[in-house]
UniProtKB/TrEMBL annotation:
PANTHER family with a match to the protein in the record: AMINOALKYLPHOSPHONATE N-ACETYLTRANSFERASE-RELATED-RELATED (PTHR43877)
Acyltransferase recorded as keyword: yes
Keyword Lipid metabolism appears in the UniProt entry: no
GO terms assigned for molecular function: acyltransferase activity, transferring groups other than amino-acyl groups
Lineage of the organism: Bacteria, Pseudomonadati, Verrucomicrobiota, Verrucomicrobiia, Verrucomicrobiales
Keywords, ordered alphabetically: Acyltransferase, Transferase
SUPFAM superfamilies, alphabetized: Acyl-CoA N-acyltransferases (Nat) (SSF55729)
UniProt domain N-acetyltransferase: residue ranges: 19-178
Organism: Prosthecobacter debontii
Name of the protein this chain belongs to: Protein N-acetyltransferase, RimJ/RimL family
Classification via Pfam families: Acetyltransf_3
Length: 205
């Protein structure tokens, strides 16, 4: 399976919201900036660990310039609502000291949290990472971010406590996922991502 940076995939959230999901592109700078601006103070704090109001343009540039090898980024947008700049996004950076691991991060718009956006984005990153030889995704979660920590724990990620946060490590092996709602939901999304990618490949062939 290969991942074409220009490919756009379609998925439905559990409430029926239609999403268009694809790799982030440099021309996405403006809507990414607006999407971050619309986040609640709490969501911005959990993502950047500081009380920021505006994102540094340099950071926006980095987020929107994935090389699809060591830096991969995906974005989910509403298919029919142009007034919504973004539903969610996720990215990973390959670790320099361990090329088989990558640091992962997620952002989900406040009005779409709890609908499975993070699970869908994780499934896309999971499959993309495996094609690049990455076997583990590493996350950093603030102690106060109870929801994110509970999600990683439910998936079976390993945890290591640090002074301000938890470091979570998820091995990209489907057989190691927990047999619970979070694990089952991720398995379903992984199957959907593989099916979508295979259908796209067949159409191109």
């Amino acid at each position: 399976m290969s991942f074409d940076p220009q490919r756009e995939l379609s998925f439905l959230l559990r409430d029926g919201t239609p999403l268009a999901v694809r790799s982030i592109r440099p021309e996405d700078r403006d809507f990414i900036t607006e999407a971050f601006r619309r986040l609640s103070p709490e969501s911005r704090y959990f993502r950047f660990w500081t009380r920021v109001r505006e994102l540094n343009p340099r950071l926006i540039e980095e987020l929107c310039s994935p090389d699809q090898k060591d830096h991969v980024a995906w974005v989910a947008r509403h298919q029919t609502r142009e007034d919504i700049p973004g539903v969610g996004g996720a990215s990973f950076w390959r670790l320099k000291d361990d090329p088989t691991a990558a640091e992962v991060s997620f952002t989900v718009a406040d009005e779409f949290q709890g609908l499975g956006v993070g699970t869908l984005l994780l499934a896309l990153l999971w499959e993309h990472a495996l094609t690049l030889g990455i076997q583990r995704l590493v996350g950093h979660v603030l102690h106060e971010n109870i929801t994110m920590r509970a999600w990683w724990d439910a998936l079976g990620a390993m945890e290591q406590e640090a002074p301000r946060h938890w470091q979570t490590t998820l091995i990209l092996d489907e057989s190691l996922l927990e047999n619970n709602h979070a694990g089952d939901h991720l398995r379903e999304r992984l199957a959907q991502v593989r099916k979508s990618m295979n259908e796209e490949i067949t159409l191109k062939d």
